[in-house]
Specification:
By secondary structure, this protein is an alpha+beta fold. The protein contains ten helices and six strands, in the order βααββααβαααααββα. The chain is globular and about 45 Å long.
């Protein structure tokens, strides 16, 4: 392998499987031979958003238990009671996705990916561990401020036209990547750029991280 392999990670902040993949993604981000670029797809944003309901809550909790067994990631009773059990809430990843775009725009380029990943993990923990509604803009802004990302939090609280445009462009690019590669769900990893793009089998995100790195290195 010569140089770093471009790896696009397609995700949604409210996707439990994406949260489960966080340890593997964190490991990949620390590899010198990998140029990781997180790209949101808006799975639960815009027309994909909906009000929490008992059917979804039951389905999500069952899936979460499987994710926990495969990944070791925690899904707490606080999350089950306060998020899934709050039938007045929304399943809407639009605000969290917009916050991550604000983080990217506010960061210096060499720190942008690392800061976005840190923000994503904190937003995920707020939901799945602390039982806080990370579809709530107030919760999200507080998470960013807790990470010391005050500029991003301020821009997220009062989004300007350039932030909204950048967010739409990122989600559009993520959806186009899904369409182009025939991906039906997230998380997904795409290696390379242009005509050489190819998918990594999603199950490898939940296996030994060394095997995942070796598969990318062999690309």
């Amino acid at each position: 392998m010569t140089g770093a392999v471009p790896v696009t990670w397609l995700f949604d902040p409210l996707c439990g499987w994406c949260y489960g993949a966080a340890p593997a993604i964190r490991h990949l981000a620390g590899q010198a031979g990998v140029a990781l670029d997180p790209l949101p797809v808006g799975l639960f944003a815009d027309g994909g958003a909906f009000s929490m309901n008992e059917g979804f809550a039951s389905h999500a909790w069952a899936a979460d238990q499987r994710i926990a067994r495969l990944s070791g990631q925690p899904f707490t009773e606080a999350y089950r009671r306060k998020v899934l059990g709050a039938l007045t809430g929304r399943v809407d990843s639009g605000p969290a996705t917009r916050a991550l775009t604000a983080v990217r725009l506010a960061a210096v380029p060499e720190e942008a990916v690392a800061q976005e990943l840190a923000a994503l993990e904190a937003i995920q923990r707020a939901r799945y561990v602390d039982g806080r509604d990370n579809a709530d803009a107030v919760v999200i802004a507080g998470v960013l401020e807790g990470l010391g990302l005050a500029a991003a939090a301020a821009r997220f609280r009062a989004p300007d036209a350039s932030l909204l445009a950048a967010d739409r462009a990122r989600v559009g690019a993520g959806r186009e990547a899904m369409r182009r590669m025939g991906v039906r769900g997230v998380p997904a990893l795409i290696l390379g750029k242009g005509a050489g793009m190819r998918l990594v089998e999603a199950g490898q995100l939940f296996g030994p991280v060394d095997a995942l790195v070796a598969a990318i290195a062999a690309a």
